[in-house]
Amino acid sequence: MRHPGPTCCALLLVLGLCQARPRNVLLILADDGGFESGAYNNSAISTPHLDALARHSLIFRNAFTSVSSCSPSRASLLTGLPQVGGRGRRRTVSHFGAFDAVRSLPQLLSQAGVRTGIIGKKHVGPQAVYPFDFAYTEENSSVLQVGRNITRIKLLVRKFLQTQDDRPFFLYVAFHDPHRCGHSQPQYGVFCEKFGNGESGMGRIPDWTPQTYSPQDVLVPYFVPDTPAARADLAAQYTTIGRLDQGVGLVLQELRGAGVLNDTLVIFTSDNGIPFPSGRTNLYWPGTAEPLLVSSPEHPKRRGQVSEAYVSLLDLTPTILDWFSIPYPSYTIFGSETVQLTGRSLLPALETEPPWTTVFGSQSLHEVTMSYPMRSVQHRSFRLVHNLSFRMPFPIDQDFYVSPTFQDILNRTTAGQPTGWYKDLHHYYYRARWELYDQSQDPHETQNLASDPRFTQVLEMLQAQLAKWQWETHDPWVCAPDGVLEEKLSPQCRPLHNEL
Amino acid sequence: MRHPGPTCCALLLVLGLCQARPRNVLLILADDGGFESGAYNNSAISTPHLDALARHSLIFRNAFTSVSSCSPSRASLLTGLPQVGGRGRRRTVSHFGAFDAVRSLPQLLSQAGVRTGIIGKKHVGPQAVYPFDFAYTEENSSVLQVGRNITRIKLLVRKFLQTQDDRPFFLYVAFHDPHRCGHSQPQYGVFCEKFGNGESGMGRIPDWTPQTYSPQDVLVPYFVPDTPAARADLAAQYTTIGRLDQGVGLVLQELRGAGVLNDTLVIFTSDNGIPFPSGRTNLYWPGTAEPLLVSSPEHPKRRGQVSEAYVSLLDLTPTILDWFSIPYPSYTIFGSETVQLTGRSLLPALETEPPWTTVFGSQSLHEVTMSYPMRSVQHRSFRLVHNLSFRMPFPIDQDFYVSPTFQDILNRTTAGQPTGWYKDLHHYYYRARWELYDQSQDPHETQNLASDPRFTQVLEMLQAQLAKWQWETHDPWVCAPDGVLEEKLSPQCRPLHNEL
Q1: Which of B46, B274, B299, B316 could form a Cys-Cys staple with B34, CB 3.0–4.6 A?
Q2: Which residue ranges does the record assign to the Sulfatase N-terminal domain (chains A, B) (predicted)?
Q3: CA-CA distances (angstroms) from residue B19 to A89, A212, B2, B8, B14?
């Protein structure tokens, strides 16, 4: 038995095979975080705490979110399920929530005797589906305080640990950093990089030593225009990532100080791509690729190594259940079919590089007004994206719209000036129905191979994989846009005679 | 004071100015019902009970739902608000619900001392927003039993009345008839017209005397193809409407028998257009025009008369609050602006024909997969529809898709045969962004005048009215599809440089 958990531990203890110490999980989530860290070879930013965690972790290089939007990503992360945990943003006019029958990670853990805690941005609902024993979130606190004030976060972690009983724990620290802020609290800067920095009117976060960056020193990712506006945007983002990094250090130090870090599986990742063009709300690489560090006290073998395995944030629920040896229950949400997790435990990867090659994506909407359903499959270097509403323009979300980077693209486009960008707005808005990219030859996903006859076989194989996954995950868009789903008897797609 | 209600009645009673008898409301809703009744001059169908009610009512000829889909229509009916009571279907994969802060009619009535009851199809949620003191709905019963078994409905009304205390009551009887049934319980026929008819395996509803119609005898509305398939579909619908009609008679008889009918405002209407092409889920006339009968024991003056006033189902909440003399509370849902009802009480129309000329429509989606937002304004005979997703095909819902009428259109189109229909599928799927019709010259809405220079002024006036209403009702789509809504500071639309 590789992972003795709470249920079998009592028995193993009797047999002298198990320590009495509970095994815990710390899940740390960045908000719109990307690869701006030394751990992921960005040499322009200083992230000593993430780098230290990475040296103690298996570093996944091909980890992907299944949905590039805050609430549904968090819902899929906490349920292991696409589609049903909440389709769009929660705490907005969109008001999306999980289906009442969904079994979430905090529910399953609690029922199995694990104490659960959340500190920071929750962004999923309803409460009955996502209950936590200990909760300091935007639902009862200021999200700036519980999500960006790293001293407050440190003290909440301390409070959680001080009130810990003899159960194992699952602590979910969901930073609000490095999310944009210019749309909601512009007084703190575009990334809230000034919040708590000690300047006049900004307050002071005692544990934070702000780092500032010169726009000329940032690394501009290929999908961001290399312009003064975008560089200034990135420099502000770096400062906020620095606060996140120091916060991660403080959280780990609290566990270390309480003597539980060596009993705790630590996972660090982010909910979706960075809030730049082709990033968040897109199913391109910049929108879906995520940092993922997994550090296990019981799996020292591959610490500091890089895994090339293709993994998904849908794998986190199976991983955490595996760590606690909790089986996934048999139940239904719609009709008679038992709910199945399509993800897998990542723990075996901590021992041996696994041969995993395929991950899926499923984006339906960000705000309710932004219906632009997309489905994707990544198989090794090939990525296929199916844009179901391809005839309409890709929708731009409010906080990205007002960002300096996007405003600069808009203004330059209007003025007929060069944008410094690898795309143009027209093609960004209007996308082909099928997009197929081979990142081994075309890392920036600029050559759509979907209509290239040399790739017909690849296209058809990926289309078939995607359709199979959609049926398996009860995707209500499975027949879109060419047909109507007939659900009674045996579910099937019936054509619209639509001539799309 | 025209309408002494429960709050002031005690005082007036002391003064000898008010009877002790409480004033009640009975709201009867048909499900996908239309103008198939003698009350609305359909001579092919027999609906003696609706006709009798009409003779005792003001008959509105220009009543419209603001949204042509079951759940959001019921939500708008029970809140007086578009947009916030639940945007799409509730008890499906769509899982739409009201915002928690919304104040609904049952809440407001209950707080003011009115007992509330619902029998039949509820289809809105969550429970906390739509509480009823007495409830037999699909949430605790078979919807066939509480929505189509008119004997069961009669007995539930009797139970409600037998348990009535000295408070006034609001009883909402939401029939499931004449909704289609072929997609879910095909064994009962396409409109559940066989359910309870006494034939083998169909069960028997004791109080129902089924009427059958020959396909050759039905009246085919202009928007339905005159084909054998559609005529058979309509004949089945007529039989189910007959059950509804007899159910209405039974419900009224229960109130009469309990001695409360003469203290009760009776309203009969339907949630959306009939489930035929251009009907339900469309904002054309067949999708939005509703029967509306209002019968007041205190307003005998216009009984049996027809009103030409343009009224909306959004007017029902103000009407019912007015009847009980309950003020609408001051509260907010988003941000700092107080929620305002945009509808008006219909009670003055029972005295004098009012000069009301304008109603609005707001359809966002039916199922979550069917995002096709539309906004409309009807001003006298002019109707303007704004199709926000006009580049994508209009989505076809599942139960209409499998209907004999639509299958016949599909099959004939595929075979290249004449469809007998006033439209063709291509134009039904692909719609102009703006559609402007003048029903005084073009009752079937076939000539789009939006680009006709002679109607530029009308177009611009209606566009301005529509935009004003969208801002007033906090419509998150107010900037779509050309712009992005910026909500902070003063809300404004910012352009996409989109070249739609």
Answers
A1: B274
A2: 23-325
A3: 52, 76, 14, 12, 10
Instruction: Single out the residue of B109, B353, B148 nearest to residue B242, CA to CA.
Output: B148
- Output the pLDDT for position B41: 97
**Could you give the CA distance from residue B261 to residue A270 in angstroms, rounded to a whole number?**
62
Cα–Cα distance list, B221 to B35, B70, B285, B407 (Å): 10, 21, 12, 18
Q: Which long-range contacts (CB under 8 A, 24 or more apart) does B335-340 make?
A: B335/B487, B337/B474, B339/B81, B339/B103, B340/B472
Phi-psi region of A489 (alpha: psi -120 to 50; beta: other; left: phi over 0): left
- pLDDT for residue B132 is more than 70: yes
Instruction: List chain B residues with CB under 8 Å of A99.
Output: 95
For residues A101 and A128, is the Cβ–Cβ distance under 8 A? no
User: What is the DSSP code (8-state) at residue B372?
Assistant: E
Give the Cα separation of A387 and A395 in Å (integer). Answer: 12
How far does A343 lie from chain B, in Å, by closest CA? 22
Euclidean distance between CA atoms B486 and B488, whole angstroms: 6
Q: What is the pTM of this model?
A: 0.90
In angstroms, the CA A65 to CA B215 distance is: 55
Contact call for residues A135 and A121 (beta carbons, < 8 A): no
Q: Helix or strand or coil: residue A382? A: strand
CA distance B407 to A460: 30
Task: Give the residue on A whose Cα is nearest the Cα of B428.
Answer: A498
Predicted confidence (pLDDT) at residue B88 exceeds the cutoff of 90: no
> pLDDT-derived band of residue A333, with 50, 70 and 90 as boundaries?
confident
Indicate the pairing of strand A24-30 with strand A264-270.
parallel
Q: Which of A334, A368, A488 sits opposite B87 (nearest CB)?
A: A368
Q: Which CATH architecture has domain A24-354?
A: 3-Layer(aba) Sandwich (3.40)
pLDDT over threshold 90, residue B462: yes
- Residue among B49, B6, B161, B487 nearest A367 (CA): B487
Q: Which one of B181, B187, B367, B369 makes the best mutation probe of the A interface by having the most chain A beta carbons within 10 Å?
A: B369
Tens digit of each residue's pLDDT (9 = 90 or more) over A336-386: 788 999 999 999 999 999 999 999 999 987 777 888 999 999 999 999 999
Q: Which residues pair with A58 in a beta bridge?
A: A294
Give domain limits for chain B: 24-354
Q: Please tell me the predicted confidence (pLDDT) of residue B371.
A: 86
pLDDT at A52: 98
* Res A212 pLDDT > 60: yes
Tens-digit pLDDT profile for residues B376-386: 999 999 999 99
Residues A112 and B59: their CA atoms lie apart, in Å, by 61
Tell me if residue B9 is catalytic: no
Q: For residues A202 and A195, is the Cβ–Cβ distance under 8 A? A: yes
Q: SS3 of A152, please?
A: helix
Q: Do A396 and B496 touch (CB under 8 A)?
A: yes
Percent with pLDDT over 90 in chain A: 80
